[in-house]
Amino acid sequence: MPENPPARPASTILLLRDGPSGLEVLMVERNVASEFASGALVFPGGRVDDEDMSPDILKHCRLVPGDDDLATGLRVAGVRETWEEARMLLARPIGADHLLTAEELEALEARVAARIGRAADFADLATSGEIELATDAMVRFSHWITPAGRPKRYDTHFFLAPMPTDQKPQGDGHETVHTIWISPDEALAGGQTKRFTVVFATRLNLGQLARDSTVATAMVRAATSNIVTVCPEMLKIDGRRILRLPLEAGYGGPDFDADDIPIP
After folding, report:
1. In the prediction, which pLDDT does 202 show?
2. Cα–Cα dist 235/253, whole Å
3. What pTM, to 2 d.p., does this model score?
């Protein structure tokens, strides 16, 4: 393995809803047996697969003007990972403006399964000809690259998106064992009390999200923000490990104590 492997494109979606007490985000608890972020509370996401950029998938997306195949593939990967890890599908019925309801999703799965003779996977649903992936509903939120020197590196794009109406999340039982709608402040507090394991990048992105109290304001803020790429630099200052981030990224840095931070 090379000493500094290239960072693989990856995507993460922060699904949002307006809860009884304010803004809530969907998070999943990773299986303790997972290779990455074992046992941590994270946002659904993962690396971009070749199929995410295939013509068969891309033609079933509502495209964002100016996005090339990779940019659209990042959005598709976020939709796919959210489906695989939390069973929430960010899509619209063909020709409709509303996001897919729980009833529409259940009926779609049943029709596709009957047609192909097995349970439908993401590609089956996406290419069914009955839906369009709502990639245009996603707003860029942040961009993180795993620091150099790590054995596995990811070039991860974070997106905000509204909750798909009344769909109910559920873990896949393999990578994710639990799903939760939670306010950013509660997730941060749970990380501090060790109720949850919250990794560094997740914690800082929760802090950014906590600045807003509704889905609408969070989406507008993200859409009008300048996204600054963050690739943390590991330093040693006065005998302590420090992570340095670009100050202009807006996380309140630039330096963060890293002695107790497991860096993925």
Report:
1. 94
2. 14
3. 0.91
